[in-house]
Design goal:
heterodimer, A: mainly alpha, 3 helices, B: mainly alpha, 8 helices, 69% helix, globular
Chain lengths: 92, 256
């Protein structure tokens, strides 16, 4: 009960604007962190497989590389949308 | 207040005083990069084509060859060779708009504001839809909505999904990819620059903090080199995606 009243007191020290910017900053961090997990796994898997393919068939390296960049571009887009959300939360 | 170092408001890092109304440094960089491309190829064109290429013409021929071999032949094949001039100008303009992000004094990629990426992807959007209509006539709309072999029962659903992904998501993702990459790089450089500065000029009794500023500075140098790579890579990716989309609307579903 005492802890609760301390928390309430703590919360009352912030004005509405400050509380909003605290929430925005916290959520912005989570937004980008969570958005980066999937693309990180995806790009790692994609590049690993591409290197494997290039090592197995060096003569197809050019084609594999082009396709790899395409795949990276599509996968990365998800993380970048997360980054845009971060910017919007943090600054807008 | 909530961060150890006070990050400036977003307008301070992305916006300057207008040079004259509605024309600022970003507009200037964009105009200069467009003019630079034109001057570069005009100069290259003046050399005698019968002699072995030297100087500017050598660089220009290498760039054309790079677009032909690295982008057009890889994605569209021989049929796409007439698209080389369009893709070449896209690539060079984006690259020259990106690279001021690491050039001292300028220090701002023009593509870190959404206007230029948005304009470029709307251009690509108009081009690939126009190409589809030109090559396949009004049937292009049908091919756009329904890939071959879709069961009739699924047509409304598939049509909706394909419509959203081709008409809306494609230009959106093209825009956001270029814009967010360059903005992220710019903010990263700003962060480490600020960190170096605030450690170097820290008013603190703990004097050992001051030499620590070498650490973010090393990171800053490393990230600057990385940003050069990103500038080239993003221009390459934007161009290659434009080539893929144009190719899709040119040759799509001939078997059908």
């Amino acid at each position: 009960m005492e802890a609760m009243s301390m928390l309430v007191q703590q919360a009352e020290e912030f004005t509405a604007d400050e509380a909003k910017s605290i929430a925005a900053a916290t959520n912005a961090g989570f937004a980008y962190g969570l958005a980066a997990i999937g693309p990180a796994i995806g790009i790692g898997y994609l590049v690993g497989k591409s290197v494997e393919a290039m090592a197995r068939q060096p003569e197809a390296a050019g084609m594999v590389r082009t396709t790899m960049f395409l795949g990276i571009a599509f996968t990365e887009a998800l993380a970048l949308i997360g980054f845009v959300v971060f910017i919007l939360l943090k600054f807008a | 207040m909530f961060f150890a170092l006070e990050f400036p408001p977003i307008n301070a890092i992305l916006r300057w005083q207008d040079i004259f109304p509605s024309f600022n440094k970003i507009g200037l960089i964009a105009v200069v990069s467009a003019i630079l491309v034109m001057v570069f190829y005009a100069l290259a064109n003046r050399a005698n084509p019968m002699l072995a290429p030297t100087g500017v013409r050598n660089v220009a021929e290498t760039s054309v060859e790079f677009i032909e071999e690295g982008i057009v032949m890889q994605t569209m094949g021989r049929i796409g060779l007439p698209w080389t001039p369009f893709l070449l100008s896209l690539f060079l303009f984006i690259f020259l708009a990106n690279i001021p992000g690491v050039i001292p004094v300028l220090q701002m990629p023009a593509t870190a504001r959404i206007a230029i990426p948005l304009g470029l992807s709307l251009l690509v959007w108009v081009v690939y839809i126009g190409t589809g209509l030109k090559h396949q006539g009004l049937g292009y709309v049908g091919h756009l909505l329904w890939p071959p072999g879709v069961p009739v029962a699924l047509k409304p659903l598939v049509g909706l999904i394909e419509f959203v992904s081709t008409i809306l998501v494609t230009p959106f993702s093209l825009t956001v990819r270029l814009f967010a990459n360059m903005l992220a790089g710019h903010i990263l450089l700003v962060t480490f620059g600020l960190l170096t500065e605030s450690l170097l000029f820290a008013k603190t009794s703990q004097i050992f903090l001051v030499p620590m500023s070498i650490l973010p500075f090393i990171m800053l140098v490393f990230l600057t080199a990385f940003e050069v790579l990103v500038a080239i890579l993003q221009a390459y990716i934007f161009t290659i995606l434009a080539a893929v989309y144009i190719n899709n609307s040119m040759a799509a579903h001939d078997e059908h």
